[in-house]
Amino acid sequence: MKYKRKKELSAKHVLSIFVAICVLLLAISTFAGNRIAFISNIAGVTIVPMQKGINSVGNGIVSWKDAKEENEELRKENEELNALVAALKMENQNLSQDTYKLKRLEELYKLDKKYSDYKKTGANVISKGAGNWFDIFVIDKGSKDGIKKDMNVIAGNGLVGIVYEVSDHYAKVRSLINDTSMVSAMVLSTQDNCIVKGSTETMNKGYLEVVYLNKDSKIKKGDELVTSNISSKFVEGITIGTVTKVEKSEDGLTKTGRIEPVVDFQHLKEVLVIKEVKETVVLDETIKE
Protein backbone atom coordinates (compact mmCIF):
# COMPACT_ATOMS: atom_id res chain seq x y z
CA MET A 1 0.00 0.00 0.00
CA LYS A 2 2.82 2.39 0.92
CA TYR A 3 4.70 1.39 -2.26
CA LYS A 4 1.69 2.28 -4.41
CA ARG A 5 1.36 5.68 -2.71
CA LYS A 6 4.98 6.55 -3.29
CA LYS A 7 4.66 5.61 -6.93
CA GLU A 8 1.65 7.87 -7.39
CA LEU A 9 3.41 10.81 -5.72
CA SER A 10 6.45 10.39 -7.98
CA ALA A 11 4.29 10.61 -11.11
CA LYS A 12 2.68 13.79 -9.83
CA HIS A 13 6.05 15.36 -9.13
CA VAL A 14 7.26 14.61 -12.67
CA LEU A 15 4.12 16.11 -14.17
CA SER A 16 4.49 19.22 -12.06
CA ILE A 17 8.11 19.74 -13.12
CA PHE A 18 7.21 19.35 -16.82
CA VAL A 19 4.40 21.93 -16.50
CA ALA A 20 6.73 24.37 -14.72
CA ILE A 21 9.33 24.11 -17.50
CA CYS A 22 6.71 24.78 -20.15
CA VAL A 23 5.47 27.87 -18.30
CA LEU A 24 9.03 29.15 -17.90
CA LEU A 25 9.78 28.76 -21.58
CA LEU A 26 6.53 30.55 -22.49
CA ALA A 27 7.41 33.46 -20.19
CA ILE A 28 10.88 33.78 -21.61
CA SER A 29 9.51 33.76 -25.13
CA THR A 30 6.99 36.48 -24.23
CA PHE A 31 9.03 38.91 -22.11
CA ALA A 32 12.63 38.33 -23.32
CA GLY A 33 12.22 37.91 -27.08
CA ASN A 34 14.71 40.67 -27.99
CA ARG A 35 17.45 39.25 -25.77
CA ILE A 36 16.97 35.82 -27.32
CA ALA A 37 17.22 37.34 -30.78
CA PHE A 38 20.47 39.09 -29.71
CA ILE A 39 21.90 35.85 -28.39
CA SER A 40 20.83 34.10 -31.61
CA ASN A 41 22.62 36.77 -33.66
CA ILE A 42 25.80 36.28 -31.66
CA ALA A 43 25.53 32.54 -32.17
CA GLY A 44 24.99 33.13 -35.89
CA VAL A 45 28.14 35.26 -36.14
CA THR A 46 30.43 33.07 -34.07
CA ILE A 47 29.15 29.55 -33.72
CA VAL A 48 27.76 29.03 -37.23
CA PRO A 49 31.05 29.83 -39.05
CA MET A 50 32.87 27.63 -36.59
CA GLN A 51 30.35 24.93 -37.30
CA LYS A 52 30.88 25.39 -41.05
CA GLY A 53 34.61 25.18 -40.57
CA ILE A 54 34.26 22.08 -38.48
CA ASN A 55 31.95 20.62 -41.12
CA SER A 56 34.48 21.47 -43.86
CA VAL A 57 37.30 19.85 -41.90
CA GLY A 58 35.12 16.86 -41.24
CA ASN A 59 34.13 16.60 -44.90
CA GLY A 60 37.79 16.97 -45.90
CA ILE A 61 38.81 14.19 -43.55
CA VAL A 62 36.04 11.97 -44.92
CA SER A 63 37.06 12.81 -48.53
CA TRP A 64 40.73 12.13 -47.74
CA LYS A 65 39.82 8.82 -46.13
CA ASP A 66 37.65 7.87 -49.11
CA ALA A 67 40.40 8.90 -51.55
CA LYS A 68 42.97 6.92 -49.57
CA GLU A 69 40.76 3.85 -49.60
CA GLU A 70 40.12 4.29 -53.34
CA ASN A 71 43.86 4.70 -54.05
CA GLU A 72 44.58 1.59 -52.02
CA GLU A 73 42.01 -0.35 -54.04
CA LEU A 74 43.48 1.01 -57.29
CA ARG A 75 46.98 0.06 -56.12
CA LYS A 76 45.87 -3.49 -55.38
CA GLU A 77 44.06 -3.71 -58.73
CA ASN A 78 47.19 -2.39 -60.48
CA GLU A 79 49.36 -5.00 -58.73
CA GLU A 80 46.91 -7.72 -59.74
CA LEU A 81 46.89 -6.48 -63.35
CA ASN A 82 50.71 -6.33 -63.44
CA ALA A 83 50.90 -9.87 -62.10
CA LEU A 84 48.37 -10.98 -64.72
CA VAL A 85 50.33 -9.26 -67.51
CA ALA A 86 53.56 -10.91 -66.30
CA ALA A 87 51.86 -14.30 -66.23
CA LEU A 88 50.44 -13.76 -69.73
CA LYS A 89 53.87 -12.72 -71.03
CA MET A 90 55.43 -15.84 -69.52
CA GLU A 91 52.67 -17.99 -71.00
CA ASN A 92 53.17 -16.35 -74.40
CA GLN A 93 56.92 -16.90 -74.17
CA ASN A 94 56.39 -20.55 -73.31
CA LEU A 95 53.97 -20.93 -76.21
CA SER A 96 56.52 -19.31 -78.55
CA GLN A 97 59.23 -21.68 -77.32
CA ASP A 98 56.89 -24.62 -77.76
CA THR A 99 56.08 -23.42 -81.28
CA TYR A 100 59.76 -23.19 -82.24
CA LYS A 101 60.47 -26.57 -80.68
CA LEU A 102 57.51 -28.10 -82.53
CA LYS A 103 58.84 -26.67 -85.77
CA ARG A 104 62.29 -28.18 -85.14
CA LEU A 105 60.78 -31.54 -84.25
CA GLU A 106 58.68 -31.45 -87.43
CA GLU A 107 61.89 -30.91 -89.41
CA LEU A 108 63.48 -33.88 -87.65
CA TYR A 109 60.40 -35.96 -88.38
CA LYS A 110 60.63 -35.09 -92.08
CA LEU A 111 64.35 -35.87 -92.01
CA ASP A 112 63.62 -39.21 -90.35
CA LYS A 113 61.16 -40.04 -93.14
CA LYS A 114 63.61 -38.87 -95.81
CA TYR A 115 66.23 -41.33 -94.60
CA SER A 116 63.85 -44.06 -93.49
CA ASP A 117 66.30 -46.80 -94.53
CA TYR A 118 68.47 -45.99 -91.52
CA LYS A 119 67.59 -46.67 -87.90
CA LYS A 120 67.94 -43.50 -85.84
CA THR A 121 67.62 -42.10 -82.32
CA GLY A 122 67.00 -38.53 -81.20
CA ALA A 123 69.35 -36.58 -78.95
CA ASN A 124 69.62 -33.11 -77.44
CA VAL A 125 72.66 -30.90 -77.80
CA ILE A 126 73.81 -30.05 -74.27
CA SER A 127 77.20 -28.38 -74.81
CA LYS A 128 79.44 -26.95 -77.53
CA GLY A 129 82.92 -25.69 -78.18
CA ALA A 130 84.00 -22.06 -77.97
CA GLY A 131 82.84 -19.61 -80.62
CA ASN A 132 79.64 -19.09 -82.59
CA TRP A 133 79.76 -22.33 -84.56
CA PHE A 134 78.73 -25.84 -83.56
CA ASP A 135 81.91 -27.33 -85.00
CA ILE A 136 82.18 -29.67 -82.00
CA PHE A 137 79.43 -30.33 -79.47
CA VAL A 138 78.07 -32.82 -76.93
CA ILE A 139 74.78 -34.76 -77.06
CA ASP A 140 72.88 -36.33 -74.15
CA LYS A 141 73.08 -39.91 -75.43
CA GLY A 142 75.96 -42.32 -74.89
CA SER A 143 76.97 -45.96 -75.00
CA LYS A 144 74.16 -46.87 -72.59
CA ASP A 145 71.78 -45.62 -75.31
CA GLY A 146 73.48 -47.58 -78.08
CA ILE A 147 75.64 -44.73 -79.40
CA LYS A 148 78.96 -45.74 -80.95
CA LYS A 149 81.97 -43.97 -82.36
CA ASP A 150 81.70 -43.04 -86.08
CA MET A 151 77.91 -42.97 -86.10
CA ASN A 152 76.58 -40.24 -88.40
CA VAL A 153 74.61 -37.28 -87.04
CA ILE A 154 71.94 -35.41 -89.01
CA ALA A 155 69.61 -32.46 -88.40
CA GLY A 156 67.82 -29.71 -90.31
CA ASN A 157 67.94 -30.89 -93.91
CA GLY A 158 70.97 -33.13 -93.89
CA LEU A 159 74.42 -33.99 -92.57
CA VAL A 160 75.73 -32.51 -89.34
CA GLY A 161 78.80 -34.61 -88.60
CA ILE A 162 80.09 -37.74 -86.90
CA VAL A 163 80.44 -39.10 -83.36
CA TYR A 164 84.11 -39.15 -82.39
CA GLU A 165 84.04 -39.95 -78.66
CA VAL A 166 81.53 -41.85 -76.52
CA SER A 167 80.92 -42.11 -72.77
CA ASP A 168 78.17 -43.92 -70.90
CA HIS A 169 75.64 -41.10 -70.98
CA TYR A 170 76.94 -38.60 -73.53
CA ALA A 171 78.87 -38.42 -76.77
CA LYS A 172 80.97 -35.84 -78.61
CA VAL A 173 80.25 -34.90 -82.21
CA ARG A 174 82.56 -33.32 -84.78
CA SER A 175 80.60 -31.44 -87.42
CA LEU A 176 81.52 -31.20 -91.08
CA ILE A 177 82.50 -27.53 -90.66
CA ASN A 178 85.25 -28.41 -88.17
CA ASP A 179 88.73 -27.52 -89.45
CA THR A 180 89.81 -31.17 -89.32
CA SER A 181 86.84 -32.54 -91.29
CA MET A 182 87.19 -33.81 -94.87
CA VAL A 183 84.01 -35.49 -96.09
CA SER A 184 83.84 -37.63 -99.22
CA ALA A 185 80.98 -36.21 -101.25
CA MET A 186 79.25 -36.72 -104.58
CA VAL A 187 77.49 -34.36 -106.98
CA LEU A 188 74.00 -35.80 -107.14
CA SER A 189 73.30 -34.76 -110.74
CA THR A 190 76.63 -35.89 -112.27
CA GLN A 191 77.78 -38.58 -109.79
CA ASP A 192 81.20 -36.90 -109.68
CA ASN A 193 83.14 -37.49 -106.46
CA CYS A 194 84.85 -34.73 -104.50
CA ILE A 195 85.90 -33.67 -100.99
CA VAL A 196 84.17 -31.09 -98.77
CA LYS A 197 86.70 -29.38 -96.54
CA GLY A 198 85.65 -28.19 -93.10
CA SER A 199 86.61 -24.66 -92.11
CA THR A 200 85.06 -22.24 -89.62
CA GLU A 201 86.98 -19.47 -91.40
CA THR A 202 85.18 -20.04 -94.70
CA MET A 203 81.90 -20.61 -92.82
CA ASN A 204 82.26 -17.07 -91.50
CA LYS A 205 81.93 -16.11 -95.17
CA GLY A 206 78.98 -18.43 -95.67
CA TYR A 207 80.49 -21.40 -97.52
CA LEU A 208 82.59 -24.57 -97.40
CA GLU A 209 85.19 -25.38 -100.02
CA VAL A 210 84.83 -28.29 -102.46
CA VAL A 211 88.06 -29.76 -103.88
CA TYR A 212 89.28 -32.64 -106.11
CA LEU A 213 86.50 -32.27 -108.66
CA ASN A 214 87.16 -33.74 -112.10
CA LYS A 215 88.14 -30.97 -114.50
CA ASP A 216 85.55 -32.25 -117.00
CA SER A 217 82.78 -32.38 -114.41
CA LYS A 218 79.47 -30.84 -115.49
CA ILE A 219 78.82 -29.61 -111.97
CA LYS A 220 77.01 -26.28 -111.88
CA LYS A 221 75.59 -23.75 -109.47
CA GLY A 222 72.53 -25.08 -107.65
CA ASP A 223 73.57 -28.74 -107.74
CA GLU A 224 73.16 -30.81 -104.59
CA LEU A 225 76.08 -32.54 -102.87
CA VAL A 226 75.50 -35.70 -100.83
CA THR A 227 77.72 -38.12 -98.94
CA SER A 228 79.50 -40.45 -101.36
CA ASN A 229 79.13 -44.20 -101.62
CA ILE A 230 82.92 -44.43 -101.34
CA SER A 231 83.07 -42.51 -98.04
CA SER A 232 84.88 -44.51 -95.37
CA LYS A 233 82.68 -43.33 -92.49
CA PHE A 234 79.53 -41.69 -93.80
CA VAL A 235 76.54 -43.61 -95.05
CA GLU A 236 75.56 -42.87 -98.62
CA GLY A 237 73.18 -40.20 -99.85
CA ILE A 238 72.96 -37.74 -96.92
CA THR A 239 72.55 -34.18 -98.21
CA ILE A 240 75.51 -31.91 -97.43
CA GLY A 241 74.81 -28.67 -99.27
CA THR A 242 74.09 -26.76 -102.44
CA VAL A 243 76.73 -25.57 -104.94
CA THR A 244 77.10 -21.78 -105.04
CA LYS A 245 80.25 -21.44 -107.18
CA VAL A 246 82.45 -23.55 -109.52
CA GLU A 247 85.82 -22.69 -111.02
CA LYS A 248 88.98 -24.36 -112.31
CA SER A 249 91.84 -24.94 -109.89
CA GLU A 250 95.03 -22.91 -110.26
CA ASP A 251 96.90 -25.80 -111.94
CA GLY A 252 93.98 -26.46 -114.30
CA LEU A 253 93.93 -30.18 -113.46
CA THR A 254 90.79 -30.13 -111.34
CA LYS A 255 87.85 -27.95 -110.46
CA THR A 256 87.01 -26.39 -107.14
CA GLY A 257 83.79 -25.04 -105.83
CA ARG A 258 81.84 -23.70 -102.92
CA ILE A 259 78.74 -25.01 -101.20
CA GLU A 260 76.27 -23.65 -98.73
CA PRO A 261 75.52 -26.32 -96.08
CA VAL A 262 71.86 -27.26 -95.59
CA VAL A 263 72.29 -27.30 -91.79
CA ASP A 264 72.29 -24.18 -89.62
CA PHE A 265 75.53 -24.68 -87.69
CA GLN A 266 74.89 -21.71 -85.44
CA HIS A 267 71.64 -23.07 -84.00
CA LEU A 268 71.58 -26.77 -83.10
CA LYS A 269 69.29 -28.06 -80.36
CA GLU A 270 68.08 -31.51 -81.39
CA VAL A 271 69.73 -34.03 -83.72
CA LEU A 272 69.22 -37.55 -85.02
CA VAL A 273 71.97 -40.15 -84.70
CA ILE A 274 72.01 -42.86 -87.36
CA LYS A 275 72.56 -46.05 -85.40
CA GLU A 276 74.72 -47.67 -88.02
CA VAL A 277 78.49 -47.68 -88.36
CA LYS A 278 79.78 -47.93 -91.91
CA GLU A 279 82.34 -50.70 -92.33
CA THR A 280 84.80 -50.11 -95.16
CA VAL A 281 88.47 -50.57 -95.90
CA VAL A 282 90.38 -47.30 -96.00
CA LEU A 283 92.77 -47.23 -98.97
CA ASP A 284 93.97 -43.65 -98.69
CA GLU A 285 94.96 -42.59 -95.19
CA THR A 286 95.03 -38.93 -96.25
CA ILE A 287 91.26 -39.00 -96.74
CA LYS A 288 89.94 -39.10 -93.21
CA GLU A 289 86.24 -39.59 -93.81
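(ticket continues) Second input and output from the same batch:
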Amino acid sequence: MSTGFVDLHLHTTASDGVKSPSEIVRYAKEKGLQAIAITDHDTIEGLEEAMAEGEKIGFEVIPGIEISAAHSPGSMHLLGFFIDTRHPVLNEGLKYLQKARAERNPRMVEKLNRLGIDISYEEVLGASGGGQVGRPHFAQVLMEKKYVRSFQEAFDRYLKKGAPAYVDKFRFEPKEALHFINEAQGVAVLAHPNTLNMNGYSELEKMILRLVSEGLRGMEVYYPEHSASEVAHYQALAQRYGLLMTGGTDFHGIEKNGLAIGVGRGDMKLPYSMVESLKAVRSPSF
Protein backbone atom coordinates (compact mmCIF):
# COMPACT_ATOMS: atom_id res chain seq x y z
CA MET A 1 0.00 0.00 0.00
CA SER A 2 1.24 3.47 -0.87
CA THR A 3 2.34 5.88 1.85
CA GLY A 4 1.93 9.07 -0.19
CA PHE A 5 -0.59 11.82 0.55
CA VAL A 6 -3.30 13.36 -1.60
CA ASP A 7 -5.59 16.38 -2.02
CA LEU A 8 -9.05 15.63 -3.40
CA HIS A 9 -10.47 19.15 -3.66
CA LEU A 10 -8.63 21.68 -5.85
CA HIS A 11 -9.56 24.50 -8.23
CA THR A 12 -7.85 25.94 -11.30
CA THR A 13 -8.29 28.85 -13.69
CA ALA A 14 -10.97 26.78 -15.43
CA SER A 15 -13.22 28.03 -12.60
CA ASP A 16 -12.08 30.33 -9.78
CA GLY A 17 -8.52 29.21 -9.06
CA VAL A 18 -5.42 31.23 -9.94
CA LYS A 19 -3.17 28.44 -11.25
CA SER A 20 -3.76 26.84 -14.64
CA PRO A 21 -4.56 23.11 -14.66
CA SER A 22 -1.01 22.22 -15.72
CA GLU A 23 0.50 24.62 -13.17
CA ILE A 24 -1.38 23.11 -10.24
CA VAL A 25 -0.40 19.59 -11.31
CA ARG A 26 3.29 20.56 -11.37
CA TYR A 27 2.89 22.47 -8.10
CA ALA A 28 1.33 19.45 -6.37
CA LYS A 29 4.16 17.20 -7.47
CA GLU A 30 6.74 19.76 -6.29
CA LYS A 31 5.03 19.79 -2.88
CA GLY A 32 5.40 16.04 -2.56
CA LEU A 33 1.83 14.88 -3.14
CA GLN A 34 1.15 11.53 -4.81
CA ALA A 35 -2.22 12.35 -6.39
CA ILE A 36 -4.77 15.17 -6.69
CA ALA A 37 -8.32 15.61 -7.90
CA ILE A 38 -9.20 18.64 -10.01
CA THR A 39 -12.71 19.67 -8.92
CA ASP A 40 -13.55 22.94 -10.64
CA HIS A 41 -16.96 24.51 -10.11
CA ASP A 42 -19.59 23.31 -12.59
CA THR A 43 -17.03 22.70 -15.36
CA ILE A 44 -14.70 20.03 -16.69
CA GLU A 45 -12.86 22.40 -19.05
CA GLY A 46 -9.53 22.12 -17.21
CA LEU A 47 -9.39 18.35 -16.97
CA GLU A 48 -7.91 17.54 -20.35
CA GLU A 49 -4.95 19.87 -19.74
CA ALA A 50 -4.45 18.59 -16.19
CA MET A 51 -4.58 14.94 -17.19
CA ALA A 52 -2.14 15.53 -20.05
CA GLU A 53 0.30 17.26 -17.72
CA GLY A 54 0.00 14.46 -15.19
CA GLU A 55 0.76 11.92 -17.90
CA LYS A 56 3.74 13.99 -19.04
CA ILE A 57 5.38 14.29 -15.62
CA GLY A 58 4.29 10.96 -14.14
CA PHE A 59 1.77 12.25 -11.62
CA GLU A 60 -1.73 10.93 -10.89
CA VAL A 61 -4.59 13.32 -11.62
CA ILE A 62 -8.16 12.29 -10.84
CA PRO A 63 -10.81 13.79 -13.13
CA GLY A 64 -13.40 15.47 -10.94
CA ILE A 65 -15.95 18.24 -10.60
CA GLU A 66 -17.75 20.24 -7.92
CA ILE A 67 -21.41 20.89 -8.73
CA SER A 68 -23.45 23.45 -6.80
CA ALA A 69 -26.87 22.09 -5.83
CA ALA A 70 -30.02 23.83 -4.64
CA HIS A 71 -30.18 24.02 -0.85
CA SER A 72 -31.29 26.41 1.86
CA PRO A 73 -30.35 27.94 4.26
CA GLY A 74 -26.70 27.09 3.56
CA SER A 75 -24.98 25.89 0.41
CA MET A 76 -24.55 22.37 -0.98
CA HIS A 77 -21.71 21.27 -3.22
CA LEU A 78 -21.37 17.77 -4.63
CA LEU A 79 -18.02 16.39 -5.71
CA GLY A 80 -17.70 13.83 -8.47
CA PHE A 81 -14.55 11.70 -8.77
CA PHE A 82 -13.34 9.61 -11.71
CA ILE A 83 -16.04 11.00 -13.96
CA ASP A 84 -16.25 10.16 -17.65
CA THR A 85 -15.77 13.63 -19.09
CA ARG A 86 -17.26 12.60 -22.44
CA HIS A 87 -20.56 11.35 -21.05
CA PRO A 88 -23.47 13.14 -22.78
CA VAL A 89 -25.72 13.35 -19.70
CA LEU A 90 -23.03 15.12 -17.68
CA ASN A 91 -22.11 17.41 -20.54
CA GLU A 92 -25.71 18.43 -21.22
CA GLY A 93 -26.17 19.33 -17.56
CA LEU A 94 -22.97 21.36 -17.48
CA LYS A 95 -23.91 23.10 -20.73
CA TYR A 96 -27.12 24.30 -19.09
CA LEU A 97 -25.18 25.56 -16.05
CA GLN A 98 -22.74 27.46 -18.27
CA LYS A 99 -25.64 29.13 -20.08
CA ALA A 100 -27.18 30.20 -16.77
CA ARG A 101 -23.83 31.51 -15.53
CA ALA A 102 -23.31 33.47 -18.75
CA GLU A 103 -26.64 35.19 -18.20
CA ARG A 104 -25.88 35.93 -14.54
CA ASN A 105 -22.51 37.66 -14.90
CA PRO A 106 -23.63 40.66 -17.02
CA ARG A 107 -26.39 41.29 -14.51
CA MET A 108 -23.77 41.60 -11.76
CA VAL A 109 -21.87 44.10 -13.91
CA GLU A 110 -25.06 46.12 -14.30
CA LYS A 111 -25.64 46.15 -10.54
CA LEU A 112 -22.08 47.31 -9.90
CA ASN A 113 -22.45 50.05 -12.53
CA ARG A 114 -25.62 51.28 -10.82
CA LEU A 115 -23.63 51.50 -7.60
CA GLY A 116 -21.24 53.91 -9.32
CA ILE A 117 -18.51 51.38 -10.03
CA ASP A 118 -16.87 51.68 -13.44
CA ILE A 119 -16.43 48.05 -14.42
CA SER A 120 -17.07 46.20 -17.68
CA TYR A 121 -17.77 42.56 -18.41
CA GLU A 122 -14.74 42.52 -20.72
CA GLU A 123 -12.52 43.38 -17.75
CA VAL A 124 -13.99 40.55 -15.69
CA LEU A 125 -13.62 38.11 -18.57
CA GLY A 126 -10.00 39.21 -18.91
CA ALA A 127 -9.42 38.47 -15.23
CA SER A 128 -10.68 34.92 -15.76
CA GLY A 129 -8.02 34.29 -18.39
CA GLY A 130 -10.69 33.03 -20.73
CA GLY A 131 -11.96 30.42 -18.28
CA GLN A 132 -15.28 30.26 -16.49
CA VAL A 133 -16.16 33.64 -14.97
CA GLY A 134 -17.02 33.69 -11.28
CA ARG A 135 -17.27 36.14 -8.41
CA PRO A 136 -13.55 35.91 -7.56
CA HIS A 137 -12.84 37.45 -10.97
CA PHE A 138 -15.17 40.34 -10.15
CA ALA A 139 -13.29 40.73 -6.87
CA GLN A 140 -9.97 40.77 -8.70
CA VAL A 141 -11.08 43.61 -10.98
CA LEU A 142 -12.50 45.56 -8.04
CA MET A 143 -9.14 45.26 -6.31
CA GLU A 144 -7.17 46.25 -9.41
CA LYS A 145 -9.34 49.35 -9.85
CA LYS A 146 -8.91 50.27 -6.15
CA TYR A 147 -12.58 50.02 -5.24
CA VAL A 148 -11.67 47.53 -2.50
CA ARG A 149 -8.46 46.55 -0.75
CA SER A 150 -9.01 42.79 -0.54
CA PHE A 151 -11.01 39.87 -1.88
CA GLN A 152 -12.83 39.68 1.44
CA GLU A 153 -13.86 43.33 1.26
CA ALA A 154 -15.10 42.82 -2.31
CA PHE A 155 -17.33 39.97 -1.19
CA ASP A 156 -18.49 41.64 2.02
CA ARG A 157 -19.39 44.95 0.37
CA TYR A 158 -20.62 43.83 -3.05
CA LEU A 159 -20.51 40.15 -4.00
CA LYS A 160 -21.64 37.84 -1.21
CA LYS A 161 -25.21 36.59 -0.95
CA GLY A 162 -27.40 39.50 0.12
CA ALA A 163 -24.84 42.15 -0.92
CA PRO A 164 -25.87 44.91 -3.36
CA ALA A 165 -24.31 43.39 -6.51
CA TYR A 166 -25.14 39.76 -5.80
CA VAL A 167 -27.20 37.82 -8.34
CA ASP A 168 -28.25 34.31 -7.44
CA LYS A 169 -27.29 31.53 -9.84
CA PHE A 170 -29.27 28.59 -11.13
CA ARG A 171 -28.61 25.31 -9.32
CA PHE A 172 -29.88 21.84 -10.08
CA GLU A 173 -31.66 19.92 -7.35
CA PRO A 174 -29.31 17.56 -5.47
CA LYS A 175 -31.00 14.52 -7.03
CA GLU A 176 -30.26 15.88 -10.51
CA ALA A 177 -26.64 16.74 -9.72
CA LEU A 178 -26.10 13.26 -8.26
CA HIS A 179 -27.67 11.77 -11.38
CA PHE A 180 -25.18 13.60 -13.63
CA ILE A 181 -22.22 12.31 -11.61
CA ASN A 182 -23.47 8.74 -11.39
CA GLU A 183 -24.43 8.58 -15.06
CA ALA A 184 -20.88 9.67 -15.87
CA GLN A 185 -19.64 6.66 -13.85
CA GLY A 186 -18.26 8.94 -11.14
CA VAL A 187 -18.30 8.61 -7.36
CA ALA A 188 -20.54 11.26 -5.79
CA VAL A 189 -19.35 12.83 -2.51
CA LEU A 190 -20.91 15.56 -0.37
CA ALA A 191 -18.40 18.41 -0.05
CA HIS A 192 -17.74 20.24 3.25
CA PRO A 193 -21.04 19.36 5.00
CA ASN A 194 -20.59 22.19 7.51
CA THR A 195 -21.67 24.68 4.83
CA LEU A 196 -25.13 23.11 4.70
CA ASN A 197 -25.91 25.06 7.90
CA MET A 198 -28.30 22.35 9.06
CA ASN A 199 -30.23 22.89 12.28
CA GLY A 200 -28.47 20.30 14.38
CA TYR A 201 -26.94 16.90 13.64
CA SER A 202 -30.30 15.11 13.51
CA GLU A 203 -31.37 17.29 10.58
CA LEU A 204 -28.02 16.69 8.89
CA GLU A 205 -28.51 12.94 9.30
CA LYS A 206 -31.93 13.14 7.64
CA MET A 207 -30.34 15.05 4.76
CA ILE A 208 -27.58 12.44 4.42
CA LEU A 209 -30.15 9.64 4.35
CA ARG A 210 -32.04 11.33 1.54
CA LEU A 211 -28.85 11.96 -0.47
CA VAL A 212 -27.76 8.35 -0.02
CA SER A 213 -31.10 7.21 -1.45
CA GLU A 214 -30.43 9.48 -4.42
CA GLY A 215 -26.95 8.16 -5.17
CA LEU A 216 -24.48 9.71 -2.70
CA ARG A 217 -21.43 7.49 -2.11
CA GLY A 218 -19.21 9.52 0.19
CA MET A 219 -18.65 12.54 2.41
CA GLU A 220 -15.80 15.05 2.57
CA VAL A 221 -15.05 14.47 6.23
CA TYR A 222 -11.62 16.12 6.26
CA TYR A 223 -11.65 19.80 5.39
CA PRO A 224 -9.67 22.77 6.79
CA GLU A 225 -12.78 24.55 8.10
CA HIS A 226 -14.16 21.53 9.96
CA SER A 227 -13.71 21.55 13.72
CA ALA A 228 -12.50 18.45 15.54
CA SER A 229 -16.02 17.77 16.82
CA GLU A 230 -17.46 18.14 13.32
CA VAL A 231 -14.90 15.72 11.91
CA ALA A 232 -15.77 13.18 14.62
CA HIS A 233 -19.48 13.50 13.88
CA TYR A 234 -19.00 13.23 10.11
CA GLN A 235 -16.83 10.15 10.62
CA ALA A 236 -19.61 8.56 12.66
CA LEU A 237 -22.23 9.38 10.03
CA ALA A 238 -20.06 8.03 7.23
CA GLN A 239 -19.48 4.78 9.10
CA ARG A 240 -23.18 4.47 9.97
CA TYR A 241 -24.31 4.75 6.36
CA GLY A 242 -21.40 3.07 4.60
CA LEU A 243 -20.07 6.25 3.01
CA LEU A 244 -16.53 6.74 1.81
CA MET A 245 -14.57 9.35 3.73
CA THR A 246 -12.66 11.83 1.58
CA GLY A 247 -10.95 15.13 2.17
CA GLY A 248 -9.27 18.07 0.52
CA THR A 249 -8.09 21.59 1.09
CA ASP A 250 -10.29 23.46 -1.43
CA PHE A 251 -7.03 25.11 -2.50
CA HIS A 252 -7.51 27.83 -5.12
CA GLY A 253 -3.85 28.43 -5.91
CA ILE A 254 -2.99 31.01 -3.27
CA GLU A 255 -1.50 30.08 0.07
CA LYS A 256 -3.55 32.46 2.19
CA ASN A 257 -4.61 32.31 5.82
CA GLY A 258 -2.11 29.52 6.32
CA LEU A 259 -3.89 27.21 3.86
CA ALA A 260 -1.56 25.10 1.70
CA ILE A 261 -2.12 22.41 -0.89
CA GLY A 262 -2.14 18.89 0.49
CA VAL A 263 -1.77 19.84 4.14
CA GLY A 264 -4.45 22.44 4.81
CA ARG A 265 -3.20 24.40 7.78
CA GLY A 266 -0.41 21.97 8.43
CA ASP A 267 -1.99 18.82 9.80
CA MET A 268 -4.03 17.25 7.00
CA LYS A 269 -1.85 14.91 4.84
CA LEU A 270 -4.58 12.54 3.69
CA PRO A 271 -3.45 9.02 2.75
CA TYR A 272 -3.47 7.59 -0.77
CA SER A 273 -5.78 4.86 0.53
CA MET A 274 -8.63 7.36 -0.02
CA VAL A 275 -7.96 7.20 -3.76
CA GLU A 276 -7.84 3.41 -3.63
CA SER A 277 -11.23 3.37 -1.88
CA LEU A 278 -12.74 5.62 -4.56
CA LYS A 279 -11.37 3.35 -7.29
CA ALA A 280 -12.80 0.29 -5.55
CA VAL A 281 -16.40 1.57 -5.55
CA ARG A 282 -16.40 3.19 -8.97
CA SER A 283 -18.64 1.04 -11.10
CA PRO A 284 -19.72 1.60 -14.72
CA SER A 285 -23.00 -0.10 -13.89
CA PHE A 286 -23.87 2.11 -10.88
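Agent notes: The chain has two domains: 5-84+172-281, 94-159. The longest helix spans residues 88-114. Closing as not reproducible unless the customer responds.
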